[in-house]
């Protein structure tokens, strides 16, 4: 074999031996740290943690029956969907940036309002100071399948500029309800 090939193999072997030595030392250090605590101390620590956890969750008013809470939330959601006509079919959230003072998340929502479908994409900047949490919507993009209605396009572009989701959903609910009535009326006369 060539001398340079042997040297490469010897260097690789030496690097592996050093890596094995470092890993062995880490393992032994971990074993020594775990022997500082007896099994009884570890068990006591676990029990203490669970007592504190249960006490905190009971103190914060979490209901004992999560199934009852889930059913209640589902009833509330069903009521809101019937009231507004808005049904969300998809949602995704991705954290883009997280700092000590705030978080930036990208959201994507899709759904239907009566017979109109919509999609929203936006970034939510949540800032937290000592007492308050504030949220700002940026980069709002709205797609509403309302045909070629110029008023809807104007409304959507205005909403995108102002970043007001509340105004969008209020107006969409009202518009979609009347859009559905007009559509049924025109179908009746055809």
From TrEMBL:
Signal peptide: none annotated. Residues 6-33 form a coiled coil. The gene is Cenpp. Keywords: Coiled coil. Pfam families: CENP-P. The keyword Cytoplasm does not apply. This is CENPP protein. The keyword Magnesium does not apply. GO terms for biological process: CENP-A containing chromatin assembly. InterPro entries: CENP-P. It comes from the Eukaryota. GO terms for cellular component: chromosome, centromeric region; nucleus.
